[in-house]
Hints:
Elements lengths: L2 E7 L2 H10 L5 E8 L2 H4 L4 E3 L10 H10 L4 E4 L2 H5 L2 H7 L4 E2 L3 H8 L1 H10 L7 E4 L2 H10 L6 E4 L8 E3 L3 H13 L10 E4 L8 E2 L7 E9 L3 E12 L6 H21 L18 H5 L7 H10 L14 E9 L12 E2 L9 E5 L2 E3 L5 E3 L3 E9 L2 H13 L2 E2 L4 E2 L6 H8 L14 H16 L6 E2 L7 E4 L5 E8 L3 H7 L3 H17 L4 E11 L4 H18 L2 E9 L9 E11 L16 E6 L21 H4 L7 E4 L4 H6 L6 E6 L7 H10 L3 H7 L4 E7 L8 E2 L1 E2 L8 E4 L1 H9 L14 E3 L17 E9 L3 H8 L5 H14 L4 E11 L4 H7 L7 E5 L9 E12 L15 E6 L8 H11 L14 H5 L7 H8 L6 E6 L4 H5 L8 E6 L7 H10 L3 H7 L4 E7 L4 H12 L2 E8 L8 E4 L1 H12 L4 E7 L4 H11 ...
Parallel strand pairs: 1-2, 1-4, 2-3, 4-5, 24-25, 29-33, 36-37, 41-44, 45-46, 45-48, 46-47, 48-49
Antiparallel strand pairs: 6-9, 7-8, 7-9, 10-11, 11-12, 12-13, 13-18, 13-20, 14-19, 15-18, 16-17, 21-22, 22-35, 23-26, 24-26, 27-30, 27-31, 28-30, 29-32, 34-37, 35-38, 36-38, 39-42, 39-43, 40-42, 41-43, 49-50, 50-51
Helix pairs in contact: 6-7, 8-9, 15-18, 17-18, 21-23, 31-34, 35-36, 35-40
Amino acid sequence: MSHLVLVIGSGGREHAICWKLSQSPKIAKIYALPGSHGIQQVDKCLNLDAQTLDPKDFEAIAKWSKENQISLVVVGPEDPLALGLGDVLQNHGIACFGPGKQGAQIEADKKWAKDFMLRHGIPTARYESFTDTEKAKAFIKSAPYPALVVKAAGLAAGKGVVVAANVDEACQAVDEILGQLKYGQAGSTLVVEELIEGEEVSVLAFTDGKGVRDHKRLGNGDTGPNTGGMGAYCPCPLISQPALELVQNAVLERAVQGLVKERITYQGVLYAGLMLTRDGPRVILPLLETDLFEVMQACCTGQLDKVPLQWRNGVSAVGVILASAGYPETSTKGCLIAGLPAANSPTQLVFHSGLAVNAKKEALTNGGRVLIAIALDGSLKEAAAKATKLAGSITFSGSGAQYRTDIAQKAIKIATAGSPGLSYKDSGVDIDAGDALVQRIKPLSRGTQRPGVLGGLGGFGGLFRIKELNYQEPATQGVGAKIHLALEHELYENVGYDLFALAANDLLELGAEPVAFLDYIACGKLHVPLAAQLVKGMADGCRDARCALVGGETAEMPSLYAPGQHDMAGYCVGIVEQSRILPRFDLYQPGDLLVGLPSSGLHCAGFNEILTQLAALKLLPHLQKGDEIKAVSHVTHGLLNDVLRLLPEGYETTLDFGAVPVPKIFGWLSGKLKLSAQALLERHNCGIGMVLILPQSRAKVLGVLQRRSKTSGSPVQVRNFVEQLQKVASPFGGLGERELPEELKELSSKLSVAPPREDHYEDPILILGTDGVGTKLKIAQQTNRNASVGIDLVAMCVNDILCNGAEPLSFSSYYACGHWQEELAKEVLSGVQEASHSAALPLLYGPQVYDLAGFALGIAERSGILPLLDEIQPGDVLIGLPSSGVHSNGFSLVHAVLKRVGLGLDDKAPFSEKTLGEELLVPTKIYVQALSSLLSRGNHGIKALAHITGGGLSENIPRVLRKDLAVRLDANKYQLPPVFAWLASAGNISSTELQRTYNCGLGMILVVAPTEVEAVLKELRYAQRAAVVGEVIARKDTKKPQVLVQNFEASLARTQKMLSLPRKRVAVLISGTGSNLQALIEASRDSAQGVHAEIVLVISNKPAVLGLERATRAGVPSLVISHKDFASREVYDAELTRNLKAARVDLVCLAGFMRVLSAPFVREWRGRLINIHPSLLPKYPGLHVQRQALEAGEKESGCTVHFVDEGVDTGAILVQAAVPILPDDDEDSLTQRIHKAEHWAFPRALALLASGAVRLGPDGSQ
Length: 1262
């Protein structure tokens, strides 16, 4: 039989019910009164408009149902049930799913419901009811329990409940609900209830143990005003089976028995707690496999026991409510909705609660709670992530949508509490293995030492003394895909030797003696014995060339490299007399000879085809004799390419292989791969490892230098090569015609000579550093945002050498990729400042994938070398420079966390307004400019610098400490960036692991003598947000850690709690340039600063001021409200308040707002209104304060951020920043320096206020 059903209502609950009923084969048509746009789209559904049937005329509804043979009426909203619709339908013999008027009192009258529970022994919170405000407030103040839950007894659309934080808030709620009848007659009777801590869980009376938890608070973490519900999920692990049985026995069964005793008929759904939740049905219905029509019919006929309820097993559903701006206090209607899915799917649903359509069929907001976005998945965590992502993809025009990002997170935490937290090792990076490798290769490094080397491995940089020598020349070269073939054949030492030889041979082109070498090894999994063999090969090469192996970097990157995959890059520094720098083009003469030194095989260029080895260096003694050799070219890019580099304009040559034999290996290569002679000449050395330009002699020559006779064609010609090659290729099938794709690219010059620096260095020390960007590269590649990683690369290297007191001199980068894309490479290298080579490695890298390594060369006076290990003593002070976020370490763990929580890089970051990709790609902070001025001064008082890089706080600070010392940090003295709080929470990462992996907010640590702390802070406090963060202490037990971080857990918990709160909406009032406005905007958008607020409105009382332009550039809405247009201050300020409330502003900052505010305005915004004043209050309130300070002979001025009260600059102080008055200061110079202090102080004060760390007390104190 085909049934007809009538559903009363138009909200999301009714949309979900219609959607589920439409799946019943027993239903032919579903009528909805009045229905909605969403319901109309559901199969079998038809809306009834008011002209057809009045939703408020119950008799008419009953009559229409009779006439149209309606089998079942389902009543969704509470109001019609409370007014008796169920009784009217039952009196006419129409089945109604929903209670009569008496039964509906359970939801409609909270006082009646509480009394009912008391009568029948159903557990409930203690309470009292009131109709008098004074009696209610007196009870709240004197109750023997925390009477902080204030409820309107009647129906208030889910908004008539206030869960107060304290007595004052509860009393305020009484005044609003009962005194002012904020919710109309629903609040004429008030229930004041005991606050019970715990989780709110809704249990359906007819379930077999399925639960729905109803998220009713507006903000993340169950904060903010109470609402009709902001989301739900099921099943719910928060309630155990024994607890469910207790609910059934002590609540549900007693409730049913009580209803029977009181002769109340209740047909429908009864919930534990006797509350009909609003979001529960929407989320649970997708999991119901039983025909909902059969269940509802059985409820109405008393035959529910005959209908077995079946639920989908192994599936979770999560729903996230999208509410309009202003909800729950108001609702914003008419905002255009974009991003709605075209249709619901089996795993993704959107139900409409407050949505309308205009004449253009565009969706508009039409209420407080507008939509619910639901996702289904086998994992609750994945369902929550997908529902949140779906909600985030839907936007409302104007002030936007509100939705929570933490639905189901408590349940997910409980579900994963038993599982171990993530660690860096879990993500594939083993710090202990890295430490073991360092210990293993230290003897290899010591074996290469030569005069000039200072220190050893383990520091931030390698040091080399160059006293009395003027120039040094860095060179970098990648080893190409040879490493892949070498690993297959276990030729580890050979390839390490090759890496050194390539870089050192490049130096010979400049006539330079190699003196110091750094290596960079990247791998998927660090195998210590294998890596040690690679380093041994490098050390062997260094010993042969009398070059010191002074340091290196090993990067374990499991998400970029597979286990067993490696790549390497090397960096060699050479020294040469200025008069002997090659090439000497000025000495060239026609008839000079090109002499070829034989290669040992293919060398490393072109090693995507084959593997061989490289001979040791023998040329250096000849170079050091003077003018015997005019130029050298190391053949690594193909013979033709490298000979061409020897020829200045106006010269040409012909390479003659008539007397130069071609090694057989090139015949084999040509025959097997069918390569042409031209391909070999362009890509391989063809048996020539180096080409020299010599004066005429009797040497066997490769070619003769000639003046160029024509401008067209190549200046390098070749003869007799094809003939020679044919002979050696014939046993292998003869010559081929195959050409090879271009494999090597050069974005700028191969080598560069460092400028002379001897003019101000008496005993210069070269400082070398190398690093990479790690798996942060993967985020750049996946988001196609590659511009900033070049900055990261430079930062990681120069920050390291800065720790040795170096002034950066030059930088070189290594860029390796699978497929050359010039625009991508230019984007990546835009942040890199010196020449780089880019080697394409098809065997290692796929398209769009690349790796980076950087090498920095710095210079410092020997007397300025850091750390001063012997001078560091207990009592020395630690000054911290803040990081910009994660920087470039620990990203393998970041990837593991993202995988665990199911978030993508394009998803909104849970700790900011940006996407995760944008946040995680914030560049590493470079500290050179911040510290170079200080380090250049004598007696600066800085004893050590520690760059907090891989290994975090725990591993990097000890690099500048003796074994008898430790440090004690205080986490309360610096800001923990919210990204780390989120990582800790999402990945269940322990505090110890967090400190061992990440910088935790401190990018650079300075160890400073106590007497110099103020002088250092004078330079760094305001410009760099530096702060004293700890001290050096004696280490009595050498088995204990050298880094102790106090209050870290408290700081972590505080930041995590802040993230659970809604971001404060801030308005800034200005009259002029708005420099402080700019500081507030920048700080609020820099998540690392922890300013949990957003600037949503700028108001100026003057048109066309610079501050308005700043707001426009930042995309912040702005208004000009001129005081000249209003009759009085009070009227003007009332207009300000109206606009502030319309923008839902929480806090107001006065930033150069040149108006005296009226008393009503100040009272309205009490505790939420702050100002910045350019003096150290209480001194010099009012105007012209710098003039007053100078005239009074003050030694110090500054600025103060304070709450605004009705006096002149008399409000409670939040933050002060002192600025010394210099002897030659005038008003302008002093004002400019105070501005810098203001740009530090104002954001700091806003951060404190927005996070709730400070608030204005009842007595006006802070």
